[in-house]
Amino acid sequence: MSRNGQRRGDSDSADESTWGNLRANWRALAPVISAAFLVVFLVSVVAGLERLERRVAARPEQNPALRIELDVPADADWVDKEGWRPRILSSVQLPEERAFSDEGLLEDVARQVLSSGWVSQVQRVVRMSDGTIHVLCQYRRPIAMLLAEEPTTGKPAYVPIDRHGYRLPEMYTDISGCGSWIQILGVKARLPEIGRQFEGDDARAGIRLAALIFQQSFHSQVAAVDVANYRGRVNRSKSHILIHPKAKKGESFHWGSAIGEEIEEPSAPEKLRMLAKCFAPGSPQASIDLSVYPDAGIERVPEIMPRTDALVSSRKQ
C-alpha cells in the first residue's frame, strides 16, 4: 500500500470517528434541545394569550364603568324616604382606572361600606356584567341628633346617632332646616369616632330614651331630650331628665330618672302613656312631672301624740 493510500484510510477513519461522536452527542443533547424548544413554545403561547386577554379586557364591553347600587330590604325603606341613600353611597370611592375584573374589587367595596359607619354588617356584594356592584347591608338608621363638642374647634355641633348609640357620619352646626329631629342635649361624654358607640352614661341614658320616644306616634312633637341634670349632677332636687315639646317653648315634661334607675317612680311604659295623653289633640301640654304616680294622693299622717285634752284629763286623775 502506498503512503497516499494509507493517508486516505486514516482520514476516512478519522471522519467516521468524528461523525460518530457528533451523532452520539446529538442523541445525548436531543432531549435537552427538545425541552428547550418546548419551553420557548410554551412561553410564546402564554405571552400571546396574555396579550390577547389584555386586548379583550381593554374593549369597552368587557370593562364597563363601575357603579355602586344599594340593595335595600323592605324593612329599611327609610333609606330612600329619608334621603340617606346618596350619603351612604358617597362613602365608597372607586378610582376611575379600577378594572371591572379586578379580583380585589368586591373586597374593597365591602371594606369601604363597612368602615363608613352607616352599616352594622355587609351581607352580600355582587358584581353584574353591566358594571353594577350590588351591595346588601344591615343599615343603621339615624333616630336623633346629639349635641356634642366639635373636637377641633370646641364649638357645639350635632351628630346623628342610631338607636344603639353608634355615631353616624356627618356633623351639623344647625339642624333647624333638617326636619323634625329629636335632639339630645346636655351630654358631657366624649365624642367617639364615626362608627363607634357613645360610652358616657349620660349619653346612653339620653339615647335610650330618645330611641324609645322615636318609636311612639307622637315622636315628631318632641323637640329634645335634655340630660344636663343627669343623676342630679346640677341640682339633686330637680328632675334628672327633661323632655322639651315643640309646641310650647319654655315648657318641659319632667321625665325623672334615667330608664332603669327609677326609685319609687312609674315605669318607662307608664310614663310614655302619660306623655301620649299630653301630646293628644286638645291637650294643653302643660308642664307635668312624669316621675310622680298620677293617682298618688296625700295621706293623713296618723296622730302619734295624745291630744291636749287627753293630757289634761289624765292629770286630773
Quick description:
The chain has 317 residues and is α/β, with parallel strands linked by helices.
Write the layout of secondary structure elements.
Elements lengths: L2 H55 L9 E5 L6 H4 L3 H5 L15 H11 L3 E9 L4 E8 L4 E6 L6 E6 L21 E3 L15 H14 L7 E5 L14 E5 L7 E4 L11 H11 L29 H9 L1
Parallel strand pairs: 1-3, 4-6, 6-7
Antiparallel strand pairs: 2-3, 4-5, 7-8, 8-9
Q: What does this 3D model show about the protein?
A:
- Helices cover 34% and strands 16% of the residues.
- By secondary structure, it is of the alpha/beta class.
- Among the domains are: 73 residues, Ubiquitin-like (UB roll), CATH 3.10.20; 135 residues, no CATH class.
- The strands form two sheets. The chain has a six-stranded mixed sheet with strand order 5-4-6-7-8-9, covered by helices on one side. Strands 1-3-2 form a three-stranded mixed sheet, covered by helices on one side.
- The longest helix has 55 residues.
Uncertain runs are 296-301, 310-317
Strand residue content: 15-25%
How many β-strands, per DSSP? 9
Helix content: 25-40%
Query: Could you give a short account of the major beta sheet?
Result: 6 strands, mixed
List keywords for this structure.
317 residues, alpha/beta, Ubiquitin-like (UB roll), 3-stranded mixed sheet
